[in-house]
Amino acid sequence: MITSVPKVVFKTRVRNEALGGPNPFEWKDLTTDEVFANKNVVLFSLPGAFTPTCSTSHLPRFEELYQEFQDQGVDAVVCLSVNDAFVMYQWGLSQHAKNVFLLPDGNGEFTRKMGMLVDKSNLGFGMRSWRYSMYVENGEIKKLFSEPGYEDNCPTDPFEVTDADTMLSYLKGR
Q1: Which of 37, 79, 88, 164 is a plausible cystine mate for 33, CB 3.0–4.6 Å?
Q2: Which of 57, 41, 50, 49 is nearest to 158 (CA)?
Q3: Which of 54, 88, 164, 167 is labelled catalytic?
Q4: 54 is known as an active-site residue
Q5: Distance separating the N- and C-terminal Cα atoms of the chain
Q6: Where would I find the Thioredoxin domain in this sequence (predicted)?
Q7: Rounded mean pLDDT of the chain?
């Protein structure tokens, strides 16, 4: 079982008003250390932006409970998906995400190193993340929730233990 977050570089896009024009964004590499070092982080990972459960339940509830996570000493709530930076940005806009940081794992490297990469070709998705959530202190995984039934081309999309309320209950019970 993995005990610390994998070391990877995420390819993200950040706004730079100095660029001007209709698309004032530039590429920025973001390291695992920049996301997790010296912070208490709740990360939840899901199969894909714009997908039903992810858009109607998973992300919205973490967004809704953000202040309660902060009250438990959480510095950041991160949503990770094997989607590119452009998709994650547009999904964030459509979801009105203000508090949860949407982190693109476009190549699936972090997800693969976590042991959570699954084939969802049966849905036309290709390789994606299995649904999981974790609480991380300074890069060390303190608690990991993973949905039951991990398998390639799973005919269902379990959503029982990686929800915001389960994570919040865990944090309150520490």
Answers
A1: 37
A2: 57
A3: 54
A4: yes
A5: 21
A6: 1-169
A7: 96
| Residue from 10, 45, 65 nearest 134 by CA | 45
The confidence band for 46, taking pLDDT boundaries of 50, 70 and 90, is very high
CB 134 within 8 A of CB 43: yes
* Residues 103 and 92: beta-carbon distance below 8 Å: no
Tell me which H or E stretch contains 117: strand 117-119
Which 3-state string (H, E, C) describes 132-151? EEEEEECCEEEEEEECCCCC
- Tell me: the pLDDT tens digits for 104-156? 999 999 999 999 999 999 999 999 999 999 999 999 999 999 999 999 999 99
* Residue 62 one-letter amino acid: F
Element (H, E) at 79: strand 76-81
Compute φ and ψ for 30, nearest 5 degrees. -125, 120
Measure the CA–CA gap between 9 and 31, rounded to whole angstroms. Answer: 4
CA distance 117 to 11: 18
Q: Global pTM?
A: 0.95
Helix ranges (DSSP H) in 50-160: 52-53, 59-64, 66-71, 85-95, 109-113
* DSSP bridge pairs for 156: none
> Which tokens hold the place of 62?
């973490």
